[in-house]
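Progress note, sequence design subtask.
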C-alpha cells in the first residue's frame, strides 16, 4: 500500500500571488518523496493553478546540481572551486573568522545581505534578524524592490492597504499602471479577465507592449519615469472640468486647494511632450477615469524604479480619492496588501536588541559599501569597512545594480564572504564558504502575501535533501558557536510563528498556529466586502487621503505630489542623452523570478538567451539587424546580448528582460552592468530602469 498524502505548502517566492500549494508525497520519514505540486483549489485566489515556473518546482527541489554540502573555497574568488567540508568545520570557520573581525573592527564590520529568496516570515525575517541584531551587525536597508512606492503610498494613503484583488472582477475600468500582471501577478489577471468579460475596459500604461498591454483594450506607451506628470495632468483635467467628487474630497481628503494650485503647472499640453503621449489621449484617459465607476488601478513596480518613483506612486494614489472611487469595493488602487496584516514583527525580529547607533547600509549601494568607494571612485567613508558578508535569500552578483562595482567588492581578498544557497549562483562563485539551503518543501514557515488577504502555512513536506539546512537552523548553530546564551536565539520555527501571530487585533481574531496548520490558509477577518476607505479612515496622521502631507514637509520634501524627472532622460539630462541616447528598462522575464529559475533547464529553454529589444527606428541607424549580437553600454559597464527588433517597444527605449545569470550570458555580465546605484526620491530605493545606454553591433555586417 502506498502512503500518499497531501500537504499544505505556500509558494515562497517574491510574487504577490503567494499561492496555496498542495504537495502530494509518497512514503514516510527521510525516504518520503514529493511527487506532485498543484495549486490548491480551496484557496479562492490561487484557484487551483500555479504559474509556469512553480508548476515545475519539483525539478528545482530534486535538481542534482543543488548545493547539498558545506564547501570551502580552494580557488581564486570568482573561480567557483570548492572542497567539501563538514557542518562542524563550516560553523567553526565562520564564527572564528567573525570573532577575530569583531575584535579588530567591531560587530558592524559584518553585513548580512538578504532579500526575497523566500518571503516566509520564519526563513526570511525571523531568526536571521534576531541573530544579527544580537550580534550587533550593520543593519541592511532592504530597498532593492519596493521602498519607493511604499513611501509614496504611505504619505498619501497611510499604509499598504488597497482594493482586495478579487474585487477587480467587478470594476468597470481598470488601469494597469507600470505593471505586467500576465507575467508577474497572474492570479490578479484572472480577475481582470473576469471584469473584461463583464464589459470592463482595461488600459495599460507601459513603455513596452507586454503580454498584458497586448491583451488590454488600450495601451499607452509612456516614456519611462514620467508617470507622475501623467497622473498630475489627469488630475488637472478632472479638476478643471469639475469631474471630481466634491463630497468625498471635502470629507475625506486633505489639501485640495493646495493640490489645485499645484495642478496649474500640469496642463495636458505641457505634459504631453514629457510623457510622450498625445494631449488628446491624456484628456480622454482623464475623462474616462473620472466618469467610470467603479474604477480600479493596479499600480506596481515598473514606474518606481526611477529617480522620482516615490512621487510617481504618490501622484497616482491621489487619483481614486479625487474621484471618490474608494466608495465601492472595486474602486480605488492596489499597490500591495502587506499593510493589512497586523502582525507582531517586534516579537519576531527583536529590534530591541539592535545596539543604539548601529549604522544602516543600503542594499542598493552594495557596490559602494564593499569597495568603500562612491560611484566616482572617491572614498565612501565606511568606518569600519565591511569585512564580513553573509548572503542568504539573495543573489547580489546578478541582481544588484552597478554590477562591476559589486563584483570588484566581492573579489576583495580581505572580505570574508559566506553564501547560504540552494544553487551555485553567480554569488556563490565569490564565497569563501558556501552553505546548503533547504527549499520550501523542506522547512516550516508562514507566508504573508502582498497581493491577497490570507495568511499561508507551509508544512515541511519532505526531509532536507543532502545536508541542507534551513536559514533558521543555521542561525541557531551560529548562535551556539558564538557562545550566545539568549534563549530566544534557540526558539523553534513553531515558536517564531506563534510569536508573530501574538497580536490583539480584530482582523487577526481566531487566527492561530493550530488553525493555520490545519487549514493551510486563513483569510484575515476584514469586513466582507472589503472597501477600506469607502468612508475615509485613511491610515495617515490626519486620517484623510493626504494630497498635502505635513510629514513629507517636515522631512524637507515637497508636501504636494510633484513630477521629479528621471535622472537619465532626454529632457532632464540632454548632455548624457547625447552620448547614451536610449533609455534601458529591464523588467522580469516571463519564465524567471528575478534571478531564480534561470538555472532550471526547462524554463531557460523557453527564454532561450538574454536579449535586448529595440525599435527598428533605433536599430537601423546603428546598423543593427534582428538576431545580431550587440553590445549594450554606458560609462558604468557593458553586456552582450542578441538584438531583437520589434515595434513592441517605443522608439528611444530599449528592453532587456532579466535577470539572467552572468554565467549564462555570453560575456559573463548581465543588464546590471549598466544600471546605477542612485536612489529614488522617497524610500531610498533602487533606480534600475533609470539608465541611459547606447547599443552597437558586436560585428558589423558585411
Ligand atoms: N514571472 C515573474 N513574476 C514576477 C517576478 C519575475 O521576475 N518574474 N518578479 C517579482 C517581483 S520581485 C516583483 S517586484 C514584481 C514586479 O512586477 P511588476 O510590477 O509587474 O514590475 P516590472 O515588471 O518591473 O514592471 C512592470 C511593467 O512596468 C513597465 N515599466 C518600466 N518602467 C516604467 C515606467 O516608468 N512607467 C510605466 N508606466 N511602466 C514602466 C515595464 O515595462 C513592465 O512591463 O513581480 C514579481 N513577479
Ligand atoms: N536589472 C534589474 N535588476 C533587478 C530587478 C529588475 O527588474 N531589473 N528587480 C529587482 C527586484 S524587484 C528584486 S525583488 C531583486 C530580487 O533579488 P533577490 O531577492 O536576490 O532574488 P533572486 O534573484 O530570486 O535570488 C534569491 C536567491 O535566494 C535563494 N533562496 C531561495 N530560498 C532560500 C532559502 O530558504 N534560504 C536561502 N539561504 N536561500 C534561498 C534562491 O536560490 C535565489 O538564488 O532584484 C532586483 N534586481
Ligand atoms: S510565483 Fe506567484 S504565481 Fe507562481 S506559484 Fe508562486 S505565488 Fe503563484
Ligand atoms: Mo521585487
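Output:
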Amino acid at each position: 500500500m502506498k502512503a500518499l498524502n497531501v500537504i499544505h505548502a505556500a509558494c515562497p517566492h517574491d510574487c504577490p500571488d503567494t499561492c496555496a500549494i498542495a504537495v502530494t508525497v509518497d512514503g514516510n520519514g527521510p525516504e518520503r518523496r514529493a511527487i506532485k505540486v498543484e495549486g490548491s483549489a480551496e484557496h479562492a485566489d490561487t484557484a487551483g493553478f500555479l504559474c509556469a515556473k512553480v508548476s515545475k518546482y519539483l525539478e528545482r527541489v530534486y535538481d542534482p546540481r543543488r548545493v547539498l554540502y558545506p564547501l570551502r573555497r580552494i580557488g581564486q574568488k570568482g573561480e567557483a572551486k570548492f572542497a567539501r567540508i563538514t557542518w562542524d568545520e563550516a560553523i567553526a570557520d565562520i564564527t572564528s573568522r567573525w570573532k577575530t573581525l569583531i575584535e579588530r573592527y567591531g560587530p558592524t564590520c559584518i553585513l548580512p545581505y538578504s532579500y526575497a529568496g523566500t518571503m516566509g516570515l520564519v526563513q526570511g525575517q525571523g531568526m536571521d534578524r534576531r541573530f544579527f541584531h544580537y550580534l550587533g551587525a550593520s543593519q541592511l536597508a532592504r530597498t532593492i524592490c519596493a521602498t519607493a512606492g511604499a513611501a509614496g503610498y504611505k504619505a498619501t494613503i497611510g499604509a499598504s492597504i488597497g482594493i482586495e484583488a478579487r474585487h477587480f472582477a467587478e470594476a468597470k475600468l481598470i488601469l494597469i499602471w507600470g505593471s505586467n500582471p500576465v507575467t508577474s501577478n497572474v492570479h490578479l489577471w484572472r480577475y481582470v479577465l473576469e471584469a473584461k468579460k463583464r464589459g470592463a475596459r482595461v488600459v495599460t500604461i507601459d513603455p513596452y507592449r507586454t503580454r498584458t498591454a497586448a491583451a488590454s483594450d488600450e495601451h499607452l506607451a509612456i516614456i519611462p519615469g514620467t508617470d507622475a506628470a501623467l497622473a498630475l495632468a489627469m488630475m488637472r483635467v478632472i479638476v478643471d472640468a469639475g469631474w471630481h467628487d466634491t463630497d468625498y474630497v471635502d470629507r475625506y481628503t486633505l489639501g485640495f486647494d493646495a493640490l489645485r494650485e499645484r495642478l496649474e503647472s500640469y496642463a495636458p499640453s505641457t505634459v504631453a511632450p514629457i510623457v510622450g503621449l498625445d494631449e488628446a489621449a491624456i484628456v480622454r484617459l482623464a475623462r474616462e477615469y473620472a466618469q467610470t465607476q467603479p474604477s480600479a488601478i493596479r499600480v506596481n513596480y515598473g514606474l518606481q524604479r526611477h529617480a522620482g518613483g516615490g512621487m510617481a506612486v504618490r501622484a497616482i494614489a491621489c487619483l481614486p480619492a479625487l474621484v471618490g472611487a474608494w466608495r465601492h469595493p472595486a474602486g480605488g488602487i492596489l499597490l500591495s496588501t502587506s499593510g493589512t496584516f497586523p502582525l507582531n514583527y517586534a516579537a519576531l525580529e527583536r529590534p530591541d536588541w539592535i545596539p543604539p547607533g548601529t549604522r544602516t547600509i543600503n542594499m542598493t549601494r552594495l557596490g559602494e559599501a564593499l569597495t568603500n568607494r562612491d560611484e566616482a571612485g572617491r572614498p565612501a567613508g565606511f568606518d569600519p569597512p565591511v569585512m564580513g558578508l553573509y548572503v542568504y535569500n539573495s543573489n547580489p552578483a546578478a541582481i544588484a545594480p552597478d554590477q562591476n562595482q559589486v563584483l570588484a567588492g566581492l573579489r576583495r581578498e580581505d572580505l570574508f564572504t559566506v553564501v547560504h544557497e540552494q544553487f551555485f549562483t553567480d554569488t556563490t562563485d565569490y564565497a569563501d564558504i558556501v552553505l546548503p539551503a533547504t527549499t520550501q518543501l523542506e522547512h516550516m514557515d508562514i507566508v504573508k502575501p502582498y497581493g491577497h488577504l490570507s495568511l499561508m502555512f507551509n508544512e515541511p513536506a519532505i526531509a532536507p535533501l543532502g545536508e541542507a539546512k534551513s536559514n533558521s537552523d543555521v542561525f541557531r548553530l551560529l548562535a551556539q558557536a558564538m557562545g550566545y546564551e539568549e534563549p530566544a536565539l534557540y526558539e523553534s520555527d513553531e515558536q517564531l510563528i506563534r510569536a508573530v501571530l501574538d497580536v490583539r487585533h480584530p482582523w487577526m481574531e481566531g487566527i492561530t498556529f493550530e488553525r493555520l496548520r490545519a487549514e493551510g490558509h486563513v483569510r484575515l477577518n476584514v469586513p466582507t466586502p472589503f472597501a477600506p476607505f469607502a468612508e475615509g479612515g485613511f491610515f495617515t496622521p490626519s486620517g484623510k487621503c493626504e494630497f498635502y502631507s505635513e510629514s513629507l514637509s517636515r522631512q524637507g520634501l515637497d508636501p504636494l505630489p510633484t513630477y521629479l524627472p528621471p535622472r537619465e532622460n532626454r529632457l532632464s539630462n540632454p548632455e548624457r542623452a547625447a552620448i547614451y541616447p536610449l533609455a534601458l528598462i529591464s523588467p522580469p522575464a516571463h519564465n524567471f523570478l528575478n534571478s531564480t529559475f534561470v538555472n532550471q533547464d526547462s524554463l531557460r529553454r523557453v527564454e532561450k538567451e538574454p536579449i535586448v529589444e529595440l525599435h527598428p527606428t533605433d536599430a537601423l541607424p546603428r546598423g543593427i539587424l534582428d538576431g545580431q549580437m550587440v553590445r549594450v553600454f554606458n560609462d558604468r559597464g557593458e553586456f552582450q546580448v542578441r538584438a531583437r527588433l520589434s515595434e513592441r517597444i517605443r522608439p528611444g527605449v530599449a528592453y532587456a528582460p532579466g535577470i539572467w545569470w552572468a554565467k549564462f550570458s555570453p560575456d559573463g555580465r548581465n543588464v546590471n552592468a549598466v544600471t546605477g546605484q542612485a536612489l529614488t526620491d522617497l524610500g531610498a530605493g533602487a533606480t534600475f530602469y533609470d539608465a541611459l545606454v547606447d547599443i552597437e553591433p558586436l560585428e558589423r555586417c558585411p
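The chain has a mean pLDDT of 97. Work on this subtask will continue into the next period as scheduled.
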